[in-house]
TrEMBL record:
InterPro entries in alphabetical order: ATPase_NBD, Hexokinase, Hexokinase_C, Hexokinase_N
Superkingdom of the organism of origin: Eukaryota
Catalytic activity, as annotated: a D-hexose + ATP = a D-hexose 6-phosphate + ADP + H(+); D-fructose + ATP = D-fructose 6-phosphate + ADP + H(+); D-glucose + ATP = D-glucose 6-phosphate + ADP + H(+)
Pathway where it operates: Carbohydrate degradation; glycolysis; D-glyceraldehyde 3-phosphate and glycerone phosphate from D-glucose: step 1/4; Carbohydrate metabolism; hexose metabolism
Domain Hexokinase C-terminal: 244-483
Gene Ontology molecular functions: ATP binding; D-glucose binding; fructokinase activity; glucokinase activity
Gene Ontology cellular-component annotations: cytosol; mitochondrion
Identification of the protein by name: Phosphotransferase
Amino acid sequence: MRKAAVAAVAAAAAVGVALLARRQMREAKRWGRADAVLRGLEERSAAPPARLRQVADAMAVEMHAGLASEGGSKLGMIISYVDSLPSGQEKGLFYALDLGGTNFRVLRVQLGGKEGRVVKQECDEISIPAHLMTGTSQELFDFIAAALAKFVASEGEDFHLLEGRQRELGFTFSFPVKQSSIASGTLIKWTKGFSIDETVGADVVAELSSALDRQGLDMKVTALVNDTIGTLAGGRYDDNDVVAAVILGTGTNAAYVERANAIPKWHGLLPKSGDMVINMEWGNFRSSHLPLTEFDQALDAESLNPGEQIYEKLISGMYLGEIVRRVLLKMTEEASLFGDDIPPKLKIPFILRTPHMSMMHHDTSPDLRTVGAKLKDVLGIQGTSLKTRRLVVDVCDIVAKRGARLAAAGIHGVLKKLGRDIPGSDKHRTVIAMDGGLYEHYTIFSETLENTLREMLGEEVSSSVVIKLANDGSGIGAALLAAAHSQYLEAEV
């Protein structure tokens, strides 16, 4: 009996060992499959220096093509009609209106010239009722003008309009516009939930001006700009060496100062300044040198604008978290990363936002507690192992650093076009004004971008290239551009 019992125990132990071995083998295969997805992502996302130089060269080539003719490039290279940027000498009271979504902001700023700079500024934010976003053009602009009139009425004694002058306004309008002068432009199409057919093809400055007249408000729109150009203006006001502005937030764009005689498609008289600000619309850049993965191709194919904004889909805050979600979904499908069943929330597009990704990527706790909390709170995934959390951080690292390196290559392309990428005796500073939550808050992204740009430019050139955070370009920048293009400037000369 005793022998039989011992044999039974031994047999059971052998079965247990075999089951454990099989489980370990299954587990090893599972991790092997997950690792294969990660290695494949890493390989296809690779952005080594040689490839980044090709991207920068392609950006510079596309810039030349876009300046030569309308539609000659994937880049818009839009002539902004901003031919003078703030000098710091501006004086007086100026207003700004920033319309770029479901809220708009009104701002006033008292400028005190070279000594006083920005003496005082005030701002108010107003929400647009949903029905006005799909109503009539007159209703929308009357609502905006009424809010502006109310804001002007609250002007305190600290603000002084010079005697005999009309109030002047800079209008930041962050929708696609075909501009025909510094203070006129027709709407190409609405985005961001607006849909008012009668405004399409209309001059948005004329629409606003008519509404201001109906309010009895004596105010002239002297500059129509987008947020990137506002950032450039705000940057130049603070630092005379600013030559370009880049926005890296939900979306991305760049603007820079070009020599007017280097724009073949410009047919008017050359401006006195000799300069012209170009709105690049660089989010639409594409090149065979961009490292695209299956995840990028699927995201693009399923987007509202397939084949468009390829660069933006690789580097901006709108898309980075979504790319990570798609990678994690594949790992779950092929390697049961989060268990045998696919978590339902992991299938929802754009549920994992870039701020969530940033929090996980920056987690320095020994047990990656924040990663575990985000997987649970955002994706409903509980009880993850430390090994799983490390894998998630690895995915974030690959996606974020590729985006940052490609953004640096774009900036290098702009510097190349301006001839500021080569060593020389002229050690003049080159400053890029940077705005956007992705750059400001995602530290690993911004540090990678800056390190990559240094790596590409080399020590000598990079020592004179500075990236400066420039907040609120779309607000104060518009007011500064109203001042720089004031109707009273000729009288002062």
